[in-house]
């Protein structure tokens, strides 16, 4: 337990004090995320927050995890290093989608072939059990690429990717602690410590973005945790699960399904799945008039519901739970698209009181915009024709 707290606190402190330095360097070197017609922010903002998150995670991990007792972690750290340099280059000079994809495949190969991070069984999902080795590698590669891009693509408004990452890493950290898997619990809590420090600077209005460095790092950490969860949870020392694929899917439901949905839309429209657009969940909510903070808190809270659902109803099996989660997600999307928010009609009216009359007598017009109707459909004010 002490190692969990120490790892999280170290990651928090390192990230918290590294971010102001990062902002200073970014401002001195003009390393900004410059707004354009597709982006939501209006002023140039430093985008190297992932550098501080990476420092917090690495220092926290190296000081608390015993690598000799957890051999896979040396390859996890190599994967973090590669994704860090890949993201850093993209944040500074911009990488083409194909180069970024090749880098992600390289990371997947290290995790699979050296870190032995593989999905070897479907644990009853669709009636499937143990996978043959080819199917195991293909499914694991696909999962790693999709989850990395899920966190990369959902990083569209202030605080969103960090808040979702905080929820997922904390859930995985708590589960592995209860299951007495301390190394992976430390990974979850250390990442969570870095995220909390980052969010202090990233909540709207943001002083810094995590950039591709931070979002892809978040993706790699989460895909390691979810694949390890799917493999290890059914035979855990404590709190074993009977539907680990469904629970893992439920923990990552919103970033995962939103990315797959957007990829499908782009492919149907004969575009690259990595080409930018404004079809993400947070874009839909922005179009409904919600602000950054409201969207971030709404999606973060919504991401907790399927996690509770999965852990509570795991006895019904992975197939039924995953089908329910997909139905839940698309029902929400359809409702957001179909049900339009009630808009307040505004009209220009003139108002009279002694003060205004005096002003009008000074040849000025006292007009303002007010709602046309109050709650009970009563006129808000008498309009001056």
UniProtKB/TrEMBL annotation:
Q: Which cofactors does this protein require?
A: Mg(2+)
Where is this chain's protein located in or outside the cell? Cell membrane
UniProt key word Amino-acid biosynthesis: no
- Cross-referenced CDD domains: GT_WecA_like (cd06853)
Which terms under GO biological process does the entry name?
Answer: cell wall macromolecule biosynthetic process; cell wall organization; lipopolysaccharide biosynthetic process
The record ties this protein, via InterPro entries, to:
Glycosyl_transferase_4, PNAcMuramoyl-5peptid_Trfase_CS
| UniProt keyword annotations, A-Z | Cell membrane, Magnesium, Membrane, Metal-binding, Transferase, Transmembrane, Transmembrane helix
**Membrane topology, from the record:** Multi-pass membrane protein
TM region(s), chain numbering = 6-26, 47-67, 73-89, 101-122, 134-153, 160-178, 184-203, 215-234, 246-268, 294-314, 320-339
GO MF, any single term: phosphotransferase activity, for other substituted phosphate groups
- GO CC aspect terms: plasma membrane
Q: Write one Pfam family the protein is assigned to.
A: Glycos_transf_4
The positions annotated for binding Mg(2+) are: 152, 212
Q: What is this protein called?
A: UDP-N-acetylmuramyl pentapeptide phosphotransferase/UDP-N-acetylglucosamine-1-phosphate transferase
Source species of the chain = Filimonas lacunae
